[in-house]
Hints:
By secondary structure, the chain is of the alpha/beta class. The chain contains 10 helices and 12 strands. It is elongated.
Amino acid sequence: MNTKQIRHFVLAVRMGSLAQAAAQVGQSRSAVSLSISALEDQLGVTLFERSGNAVSPTEVALALLEDCERLLGIEQRLEARCQQYLQTAESQIRIARDDALPESWWRDTIVELKARFPLISFVLVLASPRELPSQVASGAVDLGFGLGLPPHPDLLQQPMGRMRLQLVASKTHPLSERSRLSEEDLQQRTQITLTGAVEGDLLTDHRLSDDYIGLSSFEQIRDMMDQGVGWAWLPAPLMTGRLRRGDARVLPAPRHNLWQEYHLCYRQGHPLGLVSETLCDRLSEYLLAFD
Length: 291
């Protein structure tokens, strides 16, 4: 039994004619008839009552029809998956990324890629920028995206674009009421900063104050900043809505903007495929348009 025989059988049932089934597959009527006869011999049942060119499916044929169509559907999906793999060299993309970009951007982008490449599987995990390279180097994920990624000897890094970090606080925070701030003013208030574990050590980013709270993600920092607990450096894409609504303010310090590169990292010897390159293009376009 093979899928060609099953395809001939299904077409003959649907069209009610061996001649029409043969025309559909570009073969002679006799070739299709022999194919169906061979299938009947293998199954040990009669599938059609024949009368000239016309054929009538038997009761057992109708009982088998749905399963046979399902088999043909599986065959088509297998062929499509293999073809797409040959075109993209990717069947699954595992991504570790920080949360410097809005969740809505990742959601919309992955939905768009899934619609364009329906047979590609996507896995996304969250990691801090300091922890992210080790996950990629270990092979746990294929791609890493993050802000200010530290170098790793086994990884290649590719810049996606610059991202602005803004010095911000909630509108209710005492520093938001000031018209001018010095570095000393910031040092005297609680700072909320990004913290990550690297080789057993906890490292903080852009820490200015000895009075600080270290958290592992930008969204956690933003949520605590919303409560008026302290001030923070936060990626501009995460602050757009709050600043427009007046829920938060950029603090009037001499250096209220920092620029950092947003990077992709991946293992050496593992070149990017079409889907990964498309994702990178979308990300670069977003960063360029944002600033």
